[in-house]
Structures
1.
Amino acid sequence: MRLPKELLDRLDTLVAVGEFTSRSDAVRECLKEGLSKRIQMPMGETEQMTLALPQRFMSDMDFLVKVDYYPSKEMAAYEAIKIHLYETLDLYKIKTRSQNMQDIGIELADAEMEKQEIKKIAKE
């Protein structure tokens, strides 16, 4: 299966942050979650990746190709991976942003407390 370098980099990011144990696990999950959704496959740099998929996924892809939902199993797999990958990365960004916002809130509260203490000392 050929995937654009950008998607493989994103898969590697998800593996690196512990969302998945390997690229293959990430791809399997993407296929499981996103097989029935459609996105256009962009042109661009690709890398080849070999993975073993459960027979059920292959049968589902065969069906979607047979009913002309996708032009090929490769396209079905690509789109499922892309959809799930972007959804997972969006959730990761939200989690990270939320933690960063919480950290900023704590820092602001600490700075405000220090400011109040300085004013109190200055009055004395």
2.
Amino acid sequence: MIARAITIALIVFSAQTSQGAVERPPKEGKYEALFCFSGENHIIATSDSMLGGSFRVTGIQRTPRPGDHWDGLSGRCDGAWALVNGTFEEHGSCELIDADGDKHFGQFSRIGTKGVWRAFGGTGKYVGLTVNGEYEPAGSFPTAEAGTVQGCSRSHGTWKLP
């Protein structure tokens, strides 16, 4: 009788353990995302060939696979940009937050049409996170109101958790 109870307990424990292993999120992978944003844009226009400014935007991130690890995040970004003699350059940082309130922090930099995105960790499930990716503008949108910017960026790359 005791042997049978132990056998049943081991089978139940074994089933729970194997189910838990299946449900664990991956620790690394590839990502693809679209981040759409809107916010303030401050411009210094010395001439048609010398422009610069700063921006503060908020937005949402979607992925081709709804509900995956990177889908449905909200974010905020601060940055600076310049357009000098036809060359566009931007730099800044972002914080993205998920539905659980966990956040991760990263920096972006772009010269021309393609840029790089790096994340360096965060809170909760993002502690120790590293992301290496590329991004580029996804379309051109009209300005909804003077002093604002609206847009989307498409990104892809790799990520890893400890």
